[in-house]
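ugh finaly. both done.
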Amino acid sequence: MDIFLQQLINGLVLGSMYALVALGYTMVYGIVNLINFAHGEVLMVGGLVSWTVITALADSGLPGWALLLIGLLCAIVACCVLNFVVEKIAYRPLRNAPRLAPLITAMGMSLLLQTLAMIIWKPEPKPFPVLLPTEPIMVGGAVISVTQILILAITALLLGGLTWLVHYTRLGRAMRATAENPRVAALMGVKPDFIISSTFVIGAALAAVAGTMWAANYGTVQHTMGFMPGLKAFTAAVLGGIGNLTGAMVGGVLLGLIEVFGAGYLGDWTNGVMGSEYVDIFAFLSLILVLTLRPSGLLGERVADRA
């Protein structure tokens, strides 16, 4: 039972980070029908920017929580500016182009951002400073760290805040109107370009938080750190229902649980033939099963019908 509880905690932490990134995918797709495959690299930039700021301020005498907060805020600003520029120069000119063109552009932007990060920060993995207390906290028979508690708390607050933003604010109404029909929304006073840019910026902020928390939890950053989490977050968005905010949340948490429990028990299920090194297989098996049995996702694809 203790092992089960420990795996449950680990799965919730991992799934929370997947959910933050998956929301960026699903928001952009819900409004402009674009799969932004460069979104994982935004997570990577967030982790590297926070590492840069924290290491630069390491001798300032500030407490660890303050360094982490400053690094997180700087990462959010950098990622928001980056995604705003990417949307403006790479995606906006292709908004009315065939769907294949922005898809290829997104893949190219992903490789470009990885290469630029490798040039700026060098390819070697870098240790992320330990900023929060490391004393384990016992929950039942399982162990949870302060960093993991922080990840769960921040994720819950951000997911709740985003749901409120989309459903109960003027910006949220404008986002839903733009997703429904951008031309009609424009006639009613909504500025589609502003709304789409805002969506990219909000998604970038969530990815920056995920990148910083990922680095703090796993203790390392490098230029390739965003590729696999980005791919799995896309899987989570599809698993829950692409374009569906609740689906992205559920898909991210569910995928984290599937991955962690699969890695923990795979050796027992296969009599030692396969171990935890095959953990990535579960994400893509889940994607294949969902696309085969329920292409719209577990909670259904929520994409507005174009008039």
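ok and the 2nd:
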Amino acid sequence: MLTVEEALQKILDEVDILEAESVPILDALGQVLAEDIKSDINVPPLDNSAMDGYAVRSEDTRGAGEKTPRYLKVIDTIMAGSISQKDIVPGTAARIMTGAPVPGGADAVVQFEHTDEAQNKDASGQPPARVGIMEEARPGLNIRKAGEDIAKGTIVLKKGTVVRPSEIGLMASLGYSKLKVIRRPVVAVLSTGNELVEVDKPLPEGKIHDSNAYSIAGLVKRCGCVSRMLGIARDDEKDLLSKLQQAQDADMLLTTGGVSMGDYDMVKDILARDGEMVFWKVRVKPGKPLAFGKIKGKKKPVLHLGLPGNAVSCMVSFELFVRPALLKMMGKKNIAKPVVEAILENDVKNDAGRRIYDRAIVEKRDGHYYARLTGPQGSGILTSMALANGLVLIPEERKMVNKGETVQALMLDWNEEVNV
């Protein structure tokens, strides 16, 4: 039986980064750049004002102060997006708004607050024809130079960069409407079992709604991938094979159930017979019956992970093994969930001889992380996942971990509510 690390490595060894595609910049959120991005323009394109104020010649403001203003003739008002046709010559100034190009002859901008404009507006609120400058301006004051942010010809983003909102805004500022990125994996999700009923159907006695397909599809989407739900395959070889054929053009197939020791657990048997079985069973709790291999695809073999049927085992297996594989497919380098050291607030017994991942609520108090279990930890108790934001790791060699001991907690959710 493989360790968690051995099983994950075998999966990652079979994963290739997918090919690139060109998508609209907003659709590229969370994807990885497939090429370097070079700027064909300066950003900003021209010297522009960083403040609302007056564009001046700095030498015209020598000695200026509140009691010794230097008076200049106002020759123009320059709005953002417009270019003045008038140069600033000795004894003149131009009103200028934030972002407006600095007119010729000016080498500084004095903000309104350091002028007497407010006191000298006429009855209609119009600015004065002459303004008093009440601070001495140094050359370059409140001016953003052309190319200050990005110089023409420079590489602004390197291949392999994950596209975030800031990268999208940056691309927009450079005039990009599309980006070349590693495409999103298409993941087929198939539930198996006679006991399952679709969520919108009446629930007969002895049956259960199919929750696994939805939790797994949600996790797939959360990774930034495309989920394709294939429905439910009954415990019948013909039905199962028919469903598996629908996954032949996917990048990965995830099945839930059918991989343990029951008489009708056929997924692993079909995988071993008609595909390629790499391994079955991992030394972990929950999630021991995990099958990994390949099925026949239309163009290339499709990676297949047979997840356990129990709801918690299914989700924990996804976090440990599927999520890293999908992120690698997308070209991402950081594929591990964050892990923190936390003080355990429960006694935890390990009588399984396997590594345990118990569901926990992790909080930061007084500079330390604390982890308390969400309650009963049965592999079918889905509420234990709904309440958790982390998984507490109990080593396989430890038979008991006591309250107050420090453990590792793998964070399922990492946000400001945890790190307070």
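summary for the 2nd one i guess: The mean pLDDT is 92.
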